[in-house]
Design goal:
116 residues; mainly beta; seven-stranded mixed β-sheet
Length: 116
């Protein structure tokens, strides 16, 4: 079992920034990937960004150039730096811990609200 605790969400004005953190209870070194997903009201959960064990990143087109995913293996933590936030970025953001055939865990989510 792996516990994932997200933090860093909140209310921000359009154009502002937030940094989300996801702390894992177990090492993330061997994860195939760690990822951030989001679910906006009335919409399905969608991928935001992922980072592989080797540090290769992948982003949804809607956040490319604005969001940056990173990780600190020693701290067992994944981050999502979100800049130039837009109202359409408002959602609950979830962290995912994935090891193929072995582990697939999700955090409880952190709310991001973008409003003036």
């Amino acid at each position: 079992q792996v516990q994932l605790v997200e933090s860093g969400g909140g209310l921000v004005q359009p154009g502002g920034s937030l940094r989300l953190s996801c702390a894992a209870s177990r090492s993330i070194f061997s994860c195939n990937f760690m990822g951030w997903y989001r679910r906006a009201p009335g919409k399905q959960r969608e991928l935001v960004a992922t980072i592989t064990a080797g540090g290769i990143t992948n982003y949804a087109d809607s956040v490319k150039g604005r969001f940056t995913i990173s990780k600190d293996n020693g701290k067992k933590t994944v981050y999502l730096q979100m800049n130039s936030l837009k109202p359409e970025d408002a959602a609950i953001y979830y962290c995912r811990y994935f090891i193929q055939t072995t582990a697939d865990y999700w955090g409880q989510g952190t709310q991001v609200t973008v409003s003036s």
